[in-house]
Amino acid sequence: MKIGFLFPGQGAQYVGMCKDFYEKYNKVKDIYGKVEEITGVDIADISFNGDESVLNETKNTQLAVLTMSLAILELLKENGIEADALAGLSLGEYAALIHSGALSFEDGVKVVQKRGEFMQNLLPAGEWQMAAIIGLDDEIVEIVCNSITSGFVVPANYNTKGQVVISGEKIAVEEASVLAKEKGAKLVNIIKTAGPFHTAKLTESAKTLRKVLDNTTFNSFETAVIKNIDGEKYSEQDDIREILEKHIISPVRFTKSLQTMLDMGVDTFVEIGPGKTLSGFIKRIKTDKEIKILNINNVETFEDTLAKLKGDA
Predict the structure, then answer these.
(1) Which position among 100, 167, 198, 205 bears the catalytic label?
(2) For all residues of the chain together, what is the average pLDDT?
C-alpha cells in the first residue's frame, strides 16, 4: 500500500469544521493553541462559532483550513500513519510542505497568515468571481475564456478530468459560464472565494509574499510533495520561494498532480481537512488499478479511515 495525503484549499471551509475533533482530542486543542500563539488570531472561535462571512474572509479562511489539516495530521502521526506522497490544492500545498518538513510548523503558519492577508488586502479594485466549469475538456474552457471580450477571465484551477475553475471579473465569469453551458458544460458552480486567485491580477500579492518568503527558512523534504504549478514532484534543486511566489498567480495543475501521484504508485488517497471535494477529483481520473479513496473531515470519518488503514497494514 502506498499512501498519498491530499489537502483542500480555500472554498472547502464551513462554520463548525473540526469542532468535534477539538472537543475530543487534546492534541487538536494544542494545535489550535499553537496557531493562536503564533498569529494572535483565535482561529478556533472563528472556525467553530464565527459568522460565515467572517470565516469566508480570505485571511481567516486560509488559516482555518490549514489549522484543521495540521490538527488531523497530528492525530494520524500519533497513530503511526504516514504518507509516501503529499499534495494540496492551492492553499493546501502549504499543509503538504509543513508535513514534509520543508517548512517548520511556525514558519508555515506565519507564511499562510501573511498570504491570506495579502490575497485579501492587495486585490485590485473590481468585482471578482470564480466558477467551476464541469463537463468540458480543458481546451474548450480555454477557448471559452479567450473568446470573452466583456472583461478578464482565465482558467485558474485544472482540478480533474472535466472540471476547470475559471477566475476573473464577475461580468466576464458570468458571460463565460453562459457560453460554457452553450458548449455543453453539464454544470457551472460559483466558488466561495473572494478574488481572482491564480491569475495575474494578484501580482502585487505575489511580490509582497516573496519578501516574506525571502526571510523564511526552507529545509530538505522528508516526504515527496507534488507542486501545483506544474504537477511535478518538488526536487531539492527547486527554488521553493520562486515557486510559491508564482503559485499565487499561476493556474493550479491538480489533474496532473494526481496523475503524478498515481504514476508514483500511490493506491490509497486520504483527503485531510474540510469537505471531500478532492476525493471526487480522484474518482474522475481513470486508472487501470484499484484505488482506495478515504477522507477525514470529522471524528467519525477519522476513526473509520484509521480502522481501514490499520486493517490494510
Answers:
(1) 198
(2) 95
DSSP string, 190-250: E-S--S-TTSGGGHHHHHHHHHHHHTS-----SSEEB-TTTS-B--TTS-HHHHHHHHTTS
* pTM summary value: 0.95
Q: Among the options 90, 177, 205, 250, which is catalytic?
A: 90
Confidence of residue 11 (pLDDT cuts 50, 70, 90): confident
Cβ contact 198:144 at 8 Å: no
Inter-axis angle of helices 58-78 and 105-121, to 10 degrees?
160
Signed CA dihedral, 278, 296, 71, 57: sign only: positive
State yes or no: is 90 an active-site residue: yes
- Beta strand 153-160 with 163-169 is antiparallel
Contact 176, 132 (CB under 8 A): no
Kindly report the number of other CB atoms within 10 A of residue 302's CB atom. Answer: 22
> Which distant-in-sequence residues (6+ apart) come within 8 Å of 287 by Cβ?
262
Rounded Cα distance between 162 and 286, Å, is 12
Active site annotation includes 53: no
- Which burial class, exposed, middle or buried, applies to 255 when counting CB atoms under 10 A from its CB (0-12, 13-18, 19+)? buried
Residue whose C-alpha is closest to residue 239's, from 249, 251, 250, 247 = 247
Residue type, 42: D
Q: What is the rounded distance in angstroms from the CA atom of residue 35 to the CA atom of residue 255?
A: 31
With cut-offs at 50, 70 and 90, classify the pLDDT of residue 312: low
